[in-house]
């Protein structure tokens, strides 16, 4: 099979870039021909007002992107085009180019951009669904949800309104890939056609080995930002009645707050390379994941499970599909430091159960998040989209 990957990369490499690279590698390993079209965002922040205004308009529709992908399709003759992100430089014109050349197009929904101008369904330190289902998402403009700017949010909203009116998102994409069933439901509530949304999780490419987990500490890995629940984590550790060591890996704007509120048994390690993070996971007893927003598909949890490390995670959004209470981990009420502290103490007091849920975490990884399992899922989705083009049938069965 011949595939074109399309991705507008972010200014700072994140989870989406990791997923794009992972899918590229696994598809190549299975013998498929892949061509990438990746556009970089570098330099946008330092652009002048007129340049940013032009980029804003191009995010709605880019004739240049249309020509570029049209030419690539003509030259490469792919069986399918897989889009990951189009904003701001590529634009949804890529879908039109695929349709005009008769090539099926897939789009992975890494975040909530198609139903939330701010992309994350999170505002003012809390979950926000005000714009879901609204044909004109005006609350986003009022609150300046995109990059904290009303002007930039207005452009994002204009793009959504334009493509909703043209039915771009309903008609021009063959299949969407949501990362969890929870996310799929949110997109349906936001107006995307249910029959076009498949569910496929992310996966870990490298062969991560199961650890011994004898280090005797809990572990947090993530950005030090409000929505990751770092404040709740710090409060919980001050509430603990037991002496449970915690190691924190990450960096972000709350680093100063973190360093000034460390309990005696908490060690801040800063940002570390991936191999050292994996090593910490292989020796930890439990992963703490206190996120307070609708996560996409946290690679941190997937990597932890690959090492046989169970997790204690907040009961919010699609996280409950990953961290299964009584199976691969424990859950607690989001933003509730007392509940987190109680859950940590409960888990820590039963070493047999910690080990059992660690074994189940590894099994969950092998059953759902390993490269081979994920390859079968993505190929089924590709074959379904190609078959639709041949038969005109639109009934998705790959969930």
Please outline what is shown here.
The protein is an alpha/beta fold. 44% of the residues lie in helices and 15% in strands. The chain is globular and about 65 Å long.
Distance linking N and C termini: 22 Å
Domain count: 2
CATH architecture of the largest domain: 3-Layer(aba) Sandwich
Structural class: alpha/beta
Structure description:
This protein has 399 residues and is an alpha/beta fold. The protein folds into 2 domains: 167 residues, Rossmann fold, CATH 3.40.50; 152 residues, Glycogen Phosphorylase B (Rossmann fold), CATH 3.40.50. It is 44% helix and 15% strand. The protein has a 6-stranded parallel beta sheet, with helices on both faces. Strands 11-10-9-12-13-14 form a 6-stranded parallel beta sheet, with helices on both faces. Helix 8 links the parallel strand 7 and strand 8. Helix 2 runs parallel beside helix 6, helix 12 crosses helix 15 and helix 15 packs parallel to helix 16. The two termini are 22 Å apart.
């Amino acid at each position: 099979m011949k595939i074109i990957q399309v991705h507008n990369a972010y200014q700072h490499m994140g989870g989406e870039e990791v997923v794009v690279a992972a899918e590229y590698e696994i598809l190549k390993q299975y013998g498929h021909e892949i061509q990438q079209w990746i556009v970089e965002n570098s330099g946008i922040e330092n652009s002048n007002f007129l340049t940013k205004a032009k980029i804003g308009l191009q995010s709605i529709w880019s004739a240049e992107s249309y020509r570029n992908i049209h030419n690539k399709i003509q030259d490469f003759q792919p069986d399918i085009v897989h889009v990951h992100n189009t904003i701001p430089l590529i634009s949804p014109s890529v879908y039109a180019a695929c349709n005009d050349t008769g090539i099926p197009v897939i789009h992975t929904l890494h975040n909530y951009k198609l139903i939330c101008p701010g992309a994350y369904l999170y505002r003012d330190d809390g979950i926000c669904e005000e714009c879901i289902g609204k044909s004109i998402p005006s609350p986003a403009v009022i609150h300046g949800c995109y990059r904290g700017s009303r002007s930039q949010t207005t452009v994002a909203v204009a793009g959504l309104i334009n493509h909703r009116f043209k039915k771009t998102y309903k008609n021009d994409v063959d299949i969407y890939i949501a990362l969890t069933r929870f996310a799929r439901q949110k997109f349906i509530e936001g107006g995307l056609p249910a029959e076009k949304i498949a569910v496929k999780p992310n996966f870990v490419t490298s062969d991560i080995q199961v650890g011994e987990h004898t280090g005797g500490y809990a572990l947090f890995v993530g950005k030090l930002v409000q929505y990751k629940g770092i404040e709740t984590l710090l409060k919980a550790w001050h509430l603990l009645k037991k002496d449970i060591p915690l190691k924190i890996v990450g960096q972000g704007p709350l680093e100063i707050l973190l360093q000034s509120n460390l309990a005696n048994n908490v060690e801040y390690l800063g940002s570390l390379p991936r191999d050292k993070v994996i090593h910490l996971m292989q020796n930890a007893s439990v992963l703490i994941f206190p996120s307070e927003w609708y996560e996409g598909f946290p690679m941190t949890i997937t990597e932890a499970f690959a090492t046989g490390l169970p997790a204690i995670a907040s009961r919010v959004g699609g996280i409950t599909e990953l961290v299964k209470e009584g199976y691969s981990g424990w859950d607690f009420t989001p933003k509730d430091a007392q509940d987190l502290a109680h859950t940590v103490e409960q888990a820590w007091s039963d070493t047999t159960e910690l080990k059992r849920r660690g074994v189940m975490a590894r099994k969950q990884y092998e059953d759902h998040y390993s490269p081979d399992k994920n390859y079968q899922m993505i190929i089924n989705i590709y074959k379904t989209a190609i078959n639709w083009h041949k038969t005109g049938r639109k009934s998705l069965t790959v969930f």
